[in-house]
Amino acid sequence: MPDFEIEMVRQSAIARLCAAGASPEEARIVVEHMITADLRGRPSHGLSIRYQYILRQTRSGAAEKTAQIVKDIGAALLLDGRDGLGYDAGWKCAGLLIERAAEHGVGGVNRPRD
After folding, report:
1. Domain residue limits, the chain
2. Residue 112: pLDDT over 80
3. Taking a C-beta distance cutoff of 8 angstroms, is the pair 108, 71 a contact?
4. Model-level pTM?
5. Check: CATH 3.90.79.10 for 6-62?
């Protein structure tokens, strides 16, 4: 298997996603997730397997569908991923969950579509 410089792969993958229509932040989130998956031995979620699929989704407009809060009841939220890439929705869920848990002592987020 060829050796690659991780930073070179990261920058190239981010640039291709941006060229396909992803924002720089969303491209970074997607690529970081995938590189981490590959480095932890989970190629099913990594660049090596999923990247081309995500690139096709991005080209078809999925990156334009950012997750939105559709119901907010304090400690619990319903987040609609709007059939986007999913990485953005997952990142937002994690951040919102941390915020709500800090504010209310507990937090819950559900995201039915991404």
Report:
1. 6-62, 68-110
2. no
3. no
4. 0.81
5. no
